[in-house]
Amino acid sequence: MTLTVDEIFDQICELIKPFNKKNVTISKDTIFSVDLELDSLTVMDLLSEIEDEFDITVPLNILPDLETVGQFTDAVQKLLANK
Amino acid sequence: MTLDLFEKFNPILNEYNSLPNGEANPFTVSMEKVLSPTTAIINGRETVLAGTNNYMGMTFNAECMEAAQEALTALGTGTTGSRMLNGTYNSHKRLEETLKEFYGTKHAIVFSTGYQANLGIIATLAGPKDYVVIDADSHASIYDGCAMGNATVVRFKHNNPENLDKRLARIRRDDPKAGILVVLEGVYSMLGDQAPLKELTKISKDHNAYVLVDEAHSIGVFGETGRGVAQEQGVEDQVDFIIGTFSKSVGTIGGYCVSNEPKFEALRLVCRPYMFTASLPPSVVASATKALELIANTNLRSKLLGNSMRLNRGLSRVGFEMGTTGESPIAAIIVDDQNTAIAFWGEMIKEGVYVNLALPPATPNRLNLMRCSLSAAHTFEQIDFMLEKFELVGKRLGLLEEISESALA
Ligand SMILES: Cc1ncc(COP(=O)(O)O)c(C=O)c1O
Description:
Radius of gyration of chain B: 22 Å
Strand content of chain A: under 5%
Order of helices and strands of chain A: HHH
CATH topology of the largest domain in chain B: Aspartate Aminotransferase, domain 2
CATH architecture of chain A: Orthogonal Bundle
Bound molecules: pyridoxal-5'-phosphate
CATH architecture of the largest domain in chain B: 3-Layer(aba) Sandwich
Helix content of chain B: 25-40%
CATH superfamily of the largest domain in chain B: Type I PLP-dependent aspartate aminotransferase-like (Major domain)
Shape of chain B: globular
CATH topology of chain A: Non-ribosomal Peptide Synthetase Peptidyl Carrier Protein, Chain A
Strand order of the largest sheet of chain B: 4-10-9-8-7-5-6
Number of helices of chain B: 15
Largest sheet of chain A: none
Distance between the termini of chain B: 67 Å
CATH superfamily of chain A: ACP-like
Helix content of chain A: 40-55%
Shape of chain A: globular
Structural class of chain A: mainly alpha
Structural class of chain B: alpha/beta
Number of strands of chain B: 14
Strand content of chain B: 15-25%
Oligomer: heterodimer
């Protein structure tokens, strides 16, 4: 069973909720560091949740290229495809 | 986009510029004179050093100083060369022999700092097809070793065996033949908590991974002969690489890695932070060698841990929120508000106690800490002096309630 991009996006939004202290509306263009004001450590903690939710390995190496929720979603989709 | 390379630093500069001026600025303080491992003159005032990592008080040990002075006179101020080119003296080899004896291992490589040992070993051992799996609260040198190398980097929840197990299982599921290096620390320096090495090494071995333990803060402090937490927890045979530093218990500077891996010596030929930097000066090598001998043969551990327990208990008793338990040489109180933490540091230095102000992101769970690292060289009088000042400043800044007259009576 493969998840659609939208399903992945929705699941990631769910995981972001506890980190979204200011209740910002999340879109694919939401930038972690700017819109959600998450520091790099918090993004790593979120990444850990994503790994367990989707049962994938998300290497820290790709973090510098992931600024937005949409980029995160695409990365998860790719990693799921390679599983 | 900007042409200004420095623009990206504006946020941190703004924060820096909002710090108090003068004596109370934690980033401009310097020591006019160092009187002993535990005292210095700062701002013209005799000050108790409460956060030095000088766990054994080795910096002024008479035998270490004598060895360093002899080496300085005999061999000069520096080697001016890398270990590969002109920079290996007999004494460097002797230091490596001493490390092998200390740990009972077949191999030892000395680096110019512990930071470089982590950079070099992690970045070199784990290649492009391999994985490095690190604890979330790892020291910067471990994160930087990962950044410098080409391996896939995976992070697990601090000291959480189940979380590590999940990650290793996933890596093995997707990549059954990958080389995996799990990197742990014996003692995590901010809060002094030990890694549960029994569980973590067992899980790593179950998944056929190598284990590296950074014992920077545990050499001399834990284990029957001071080898660290792996010795204390009885799992040395499960650990493939131990990294350490001479900059704390050993009282000087330098780093090392010891191992029983048959091909370990190959690292001397490929490890860039070993090859492309000058080797340690002879005086440093001499004092490190002497200090290792002393650490192996004297037990300062109970004195050190007794000191730490006294400070931890005292701080807890007067009502501070504690980050530590007293089972390591670290004593840290948690200060919720960052500006109060900065002010706390300033008041302490004015009262004659130099503690460490530790702020996020260098701290776990974004804590603001007033952190002390104790020394076996501290006297109970010095610890009681620290306690008196902590209590005084805590009340002054409203972190502790004033004790009422009746409670005192
Ligand atoms: C866990 C850990 N590893 C490595 C180092 C680096 O040691 P050195 O001071 O020798 O570079 C430190 C010191 O800050 C440390 O705490």
